[in-house]
Amino acid sequence: MRFHSMTPISRSLSLALFLCLGAGQVSAGLFDDEEARRAILDLRQRIETLRTESDQKMADEARRNAEDAAQLRRSLVEQQNQLEASRADTAKLRGQVEQLTRDLADVQRKLKDAAQNVDDRLRKFEPSKVSVDGREFLAEPAEKKDFDTALAVFRKGDFVNAQAVFLDFLNRYSASGYRPSALFWLGSAQYAVKDYKNAQVNFRTLVQQASDHVRAPEALLALANCQLELKDNKVAKKTLEELVASYPASEAAGAAKDRLARLK
């Protein structure tokens, strides 16, 4: 074993032993037995002292190592606890974010539904495009409902009440796109109950106000029928001639020609 490769404590112990052995040999030649014993005891004391100091240093070093290890373990435990707490906080926050996301989606859905409900309610009061007798126009929901109701009464054959509901409709919706059709059905209801005079007025009003309406030729034919029922054949003939001249391609014009032939 090389001397320089030893630890300080090993070198000290080796040196003491060397000195002890050397002293024993020298004492045999230079000192008496008493001095040799004292030298040996002194060396032993020094060796013991070195051993004690070495043990103390090793104990101190072991204690410091133990304390460092304990501190390291406490640090690791603390860091682990902090990590677990951080994970718990993260999971809690994630849960809160997910709940908030669900709440937001629910609020957005409710707002969308509410907006749709408002739109639906408003749409009930907004005019919409309708098509009646070949004409398209805007009508309010209530206006359309009232016309359909009046027409349903007529089609049931309740001509007395049909007169009342169509008159009420024309009074409440004087500028309605339904007006020409309403005049036609009112006149038809009056004709059905033999109220020929009032029927004449409504048929003529339709032709005057909407000569291009699809019901205009029928209105002239119905007007001529009212005049014939009132025995006013001369006026009825003029009405039939007007129908043929104004609407020559209509079915009503064909019927008017047959009646004109019978009136001659």
What does this protein structure show overall?
The protein starts with 7 loop residues before the first helix and ends with a helix. The radius of gyration is 62 Å and the shape is rod-shaped. The protein has two domains: 8-90; 128-263, Serine Threonine Protein Phosphatase 5, Tetratricopeptide repeat (Alpha Horseshoe), CATH 1.25.40. It has helices at 8-30, 33-125, 141-155, 159-172, 179-192, 196-209, 216-229, 233-246, 251-263, and strands at residues 128-132, 135-139. Helix content is 81%, strand content 4%. It is mainly α and 264 residues long. The chain has nine helices and two strands. The chain has a two-stranded antiparallel ribbon. Helix 1 packs antiparallel against helix 2 (33-125) and helix 5 (179-192) packs parallel to helix 7.
